[in-house]
Amino acid sequence: MPRDNTTRPAVSPGLLILLLVLLLGGVQLYFWTDRSMPIDEVSQLLNYPLADFAQAFGPLPEAQQAGPPLFNLLMHAIAGLDIQAMRLVIAALTLAIIVPSLVTAFKWKPLPVAAALFALLVNESFLLNATKLKFYSFDIAGFAVLAAWIYTKDRNTPLRLVDVLLIVAAMVIGISTIVGACVVVGLFLALRLARKELKGREIGLGVLVAIVAFAYYLQISYATELQITAFPDTYSGLGVDAAKKFLLAAARLFQVNGAIILLVLLIVAFAAMMVLRGAARSPLGVLLLFGAASSTIFLALAIIGKYPAVDARHVAWMLGIFAVLAGAVVEAMSSPQFRERRPLATGCTALFVLVLAAVGLREVTKWPPAVTEGATDGIVATLAALPPSTVVNYFGAPRMIPLELARGAPITQHTYVPSLSTRSGAVDPSYFGSTWMEMDADSFSDKIEQMLRDDPAGWAKMVVLLRLRDDYRPLARFALDAAPREGRPFYIAALHVAWGEAAQDQRAIGLRQVLDERSCTYAPVVAYEGLLSPGFVLKASCP
Asked: Rounded to whole angstroms, how far apart are CA atoms 145 and 434?
C-alpha cells in the first residue's frame, strides 16, 4: 500500500486565524486599559472597598452610584489594585464568560469563534466597556450567554432546570440582562408551543425564571433609586423623544466599525435564511428573532420610561448578541447547503472577508490609539509637582481628590478646601419644581451655599439643581469662600470641566464670573481639553 507523503499543516488555518484574533484583542485591550479615569469612574470607585457585605445590595454610599451586587463584590475584592490592573481584571472576567459561551455554541470550531471575537475586539464601545470600572461589560457578557444558549438549544428538547440555572446566572451578572433572560425564555417557550410540544413542567420553570427576574428587578430598583432620581433630566424621557435617544445610543454603540460589520452580517444572514433549510436554518433564525425581540422590547420600555437609554453604555447588551451573530453567520456560510450555491457562497464569503480585513487593518493602523478619557492622571501629576499650597476643590475635584489621596497619590503636601461630603442621598422631586427652577439667582445661590454647609445630603441636591439651572456660580462661591485672602496665592483644581472659552462650559463660566466679581487674578497652570472628563489646575489670588 503506497504511503501518504502529504505534509499536513501543524496548525489548521482556522486555528491560526483564531490565534491572530486573540493577539489582536490582547493588544487592543492593553491599549484601552492604559487610560485615565473620567468622572463616572471616579464616582464609582469612591465606594470601594465596601464597608460591609450589605452595601453590595443597596444604593452605594458615595456620589449617587449603583451597581449589580456581584459587580459591587468584585470591585470590593479588587479595589486595592492599581487602575490598569483593575481594568485588566474586568476585561479578563468579561472574556472568561463570553469565550466559553462561544466555544460551546460553535462546538469548538475556530472560525466562528474567531469571527465572534473579532467583531467585539475591533469595536471601540466593547473595548471601552470591557475595560471600564463600571458593570456594562457584564451586560454584554450576559447577553452573549443568552444568545449562545438560544442559538444552540434544541427546540425538540424541553426547558430543563440546568437551562434555568444558566439563564439565571447570566441574568444576575448585569442589569439589562433581566429583560434578556425573560425574552429568551419567553421566546423558547413560544417556539415550543408553536410545535405543540410545550409541557407543563416547562411552564413551571418559565414562571420560576419570571419570579427570580422580578425579585432581582426589585433589588436593582432599590439599588438604583438614588441614581435615577438624581438625574431627572437624563432619565425622564418618554415617547418619540425617548425612541430617538434609544436609536442614537445604538448608533453610537456600533460606531463605524460595528455598523459596517453589522450590515454585512445582516446581508449574509438573510441570504443564508433564504438558502438554508431544516436544522441548518433554524438556529440562525431563532438568534435573529432573539435579537429583534430584545431590541423591540427595550425600545418599548424606553418609550414608556421604564428603560431610559440615552448613551451607548445603556444599550451595550446589544454587543453580546452581535458577537454570537457574527459566529453564527460564519457557521452558516460553512454549511454544505450554503456552499452548494457557489456564486452566492463565493460572493458572501468575499464580502465578509474583505470587510473584516478592512476593519482590522483600519484598527491596526491607528495603533497606538488615543483613548484618554479623563484628566485625572494629569491633574494629579500637576499637583504632585507643585510646592505645598492651598488647593480649592471645584466641580469634580471633591470626588477626585479624596479618592486619589486614599489610593496613595503623592499629593499629600497640599491643604484641600473646602470640606464637602459627597454622600449619596435622596433628592425630593419638589426640588425640580418651579419654586427652585424659577427662584431669582441671588436667593438660589444663598440657599445652595447654605445647603452645602448644613445639609448632609447637600452635595447630592446641589449637583442636580445646578445642572438643571445650568448655573454653577453657587458652587464657585462656596468653594472660593474657603480660599486664602489678602493676595495670598492658591490653586483651584477641577475635573469634568473644560476651561477653554471656546468650550462654553457653564461650570467654567460660573467659576470665571465669581473670580471676576471678587476681583481675583487667575491663570491656568494646566488645562486638559477635548476629553470625556476634561479638567484644569488654576493659580489664583484674591484680595
From this structure: 47
The answer for residues whose C-beta is within 8 angstroms of residue 251's C-beta and 6 or more apart is 259
| Selection from 332, 311, 352 nearest residue 118 by Cα | 352
Domain boundaries, position 389: 376-541
Residue 18, pLDDT > 80, answer: yes
Please tell me the predicted confidence (pLDDT) of residue 280.
67
Contact 362, 267 (CB under 8 A): no
Report the percent of the chain where pLDDT is more than 90: 70
**Quick one: CA dihedral 128, 133, 138, 141, positive or negative?**
positive
| Residue 142, domain member (yes or no) | yes
Residues 360 and 447 in one domain: no
Given CA atoms 275, 280, 281, 285 in this order, what sign does their dihedral have? negative
Considering the domain architecture, whether residues 381 and 352 belong to the same structural domain is answered as no
Least confident of 228-242, 276-290, 370-384, 486-500: 228-242
* Per-residue confidence (pLDDT) for residue 11, from 0 to 100: 67
Instruction: Return the pLDDT at 10.
Output: 61
Residue ranges of alpha helices (H) inside 276-317 are: 282-303
Under 8 Å between Cβ of 179 and 296: no
Amino acid letter, residue 536 = F
pLDDT tops 50 at residue 503: yes
Highest mean pLDDT among 35-39, 168-172, 333-337, 481-485: 168-172
**pLDDT tens-digit series, residues 112-163:** 999 999 999 999 999 999 999 999 999 999 999 999 999 999 989 999 999 9
Assigned C-alpha cell, 354: 474583505
Average pLDDT over residues 10-16: 80
Q: In sequence order, which residues have a C-beta less than 8 Å from that of residue 416 and are 6 or more positions away?
A: 390, 391, 393, 401
Contact at 8 Å (CB) between 33 and 88?
yes
How many Å apart are CA 267 and CA 262, to the nearest integer? 9
Sign of CA dihedral 339, 344, 346, 348: negative
Gap between the Cα atoms of 303 and 299, Å rounded = 6
Residue 2, in any domain of the structure: no
Q: How far apart are CA 85 and CA 248, in angstroms?
A: 32
Q: What is the SS3 string spanning 316-380?
A: CCHHHHHHHHHHHHHHHHCCHHHHHCHHHHHHHHHHHHHHHHHHHHHHHCCCCCCCCCECHHHHH
On whether residue 8 sits in a domain, the answer given is no
Question: What is the 3 state secondary structure string of 376-395?
Answer: HHHHHHHHHHCCCCEEEECC
| Beta carbons of 227 and 460 less than 8 angstroms apart | no
Buried/exposed code over 422-438 (b: 16+ C-beta within 10 A; e: otherwise): bebbebeeebbeeebee
Burial of 217: CB neighbours in 10 Å, binned 0-12, 13-18, 19+: middle
Model confidence pLDDT, tens digit, residues 197-206: 999 999 999 9
356 with 418, same domain? no
Look-up of cell digits 464670573: 513
Q: Does residue 354 lie within any of the structural domains?
A: yes
pLDDT in the model for residue 267: 93
Nine-digit cell string for 401: 481628590
- CATH code of the domain containing 420: 3.40.50
